[in-house]
Design goal:
Largest sheet: none
CATH superfamily: MetI-like
Helix content: over 70%
Radius of gyration: 22 Å
Number of helices: 13
CATH topology: MetI-like fold
Strand content: under 5%
Distance between the termini: 26 Å
Structural class: mainly alpha
Shape: elongated
Oligomer: single chain
Length: 291
């Protein structure tokens, strides 16, 4: 197969996946909501000035209800809630995407080695992963953050360590059926190196489940980040983060409920959009639903 034919085949496959994804209304709703959050995060500085509206305190405008001047009202320090939610989207999505990317990279390397070589290597790697997964990820992340201290960098490290064993197991499971295929044996017979076989022949054929799992994992990580920040072990004030915003507004739930409603809705909608999109991608990538 020539390079032109290969590129045309890949484009046609992507087009087919997109066509089937568009038929899933729930997935498209999720994609629209996620796009709004992503654009808000990208253009957060354009929508709201960070220094003046997000972290600067203005006691004269504290606890103002939603209005045309402050769309989501102001918090107990007079900071604009809309501005903080917009900039909080940047924090949450950055942590979610960065953690998933690093976890897939680490889990992909380790899981590929376990699935490709098998034997004693597979046994040792999987027993180590089993030991790490014996602790619930949120508890492991909490323990690591407690040891390292709160902060964005330490939070990324803690969540990555807590989540990459799951990716290792997933990637190993999707690689195992591919390793025994004829095209892999043919590549070995031609003298192709192990690394090239894994990167060029095995992983591309197992990418579908990895994409679906990573999409849903971002939603879980956004919730985990919010939970850790809510208890004071994640992002620290005055940096905007949805979970920290919820924690700071607990005592104003009765008098100013909007302080809880808007950050809570942001967490729910972000997680829901990613789950809807993940479900749609799972159906679009499933070859059994091709017809």
């Amino acid at each position: 197969m020539s390079q032109i034919e290969s590129k045309y085949k890949k484009k046609s496959q992507v087009g087919e996946i997109w066509r089937r994804l568009k038929k899933n209304r729930a997935a498209m709703v999720g994609l629209v909501i996620l796009s709004i959050f992503a654009l808000s995060a990208i253009f957060a500085d354009v929508l709201a000035n960070y220094d003046k509206m997000v972290i600067a305190q203005n006691v004269r405008e504290r606890l103002l209800p939603p209005s045309s001047h402050h769309l989501f009202g102001t918090d107990e320090y007079g900071r604009d809630v809309f501005a903080r939610i917009v900039h909080g989207a940047r924090v949450s999505l950055t942590i979610g995407l960065s953690t998933v990317s690093i976890s897939i990279l680490i889990g992909g390397i380790i899981g590929s080695m376990a699935g490709f070589y098998g034997g004693i290597i597979d046994t040792i790697i999987m027993r180590i992963m089993d030991t790490m997964q014996a602790i619930p990820p949120i508890l492991l992340a909490l323990a690591l953050v407690s040891a390292l201290g709160p902060g964005m960098t330490n939070l990324l490290i803690a969540i990555t360590v807590a989540t990459f064993p799951g990716y290792t197991r997933i990637i190993r499971s999707v690689i195992l059926p591919v390793v025994g295929q004829e095209f892999v044996e043919a590549a070995r017979a031609c003298g192709t190196g192990d690394r090239r076989i894994i990167l060029r022949h095995i992983l591309p054929n197992a990418i579908g489940p990895i994409i679906v799992q990573s999409t849903m994992a971002v939603a879980q990580l956004i919730i985990a980040t919010a939970a850790l920040s809510f208890i004071g072990m994640g992002i620290q004030p005055p940096k905007p983060e949805w979970g920290a915003m919820l924690a700071g507004s607990r005592e104003y739930m009765r008098t100013s409920p909007y302080l809880v409603i808007f950050p809570g809705l942001a967490i729910v909608l972000a997680a829901l959009s990613l789950n809807l999109l993940g479900d749609g991608l799972r159906d679009a990538l499933d070859p059994r639903l091709k017809n």
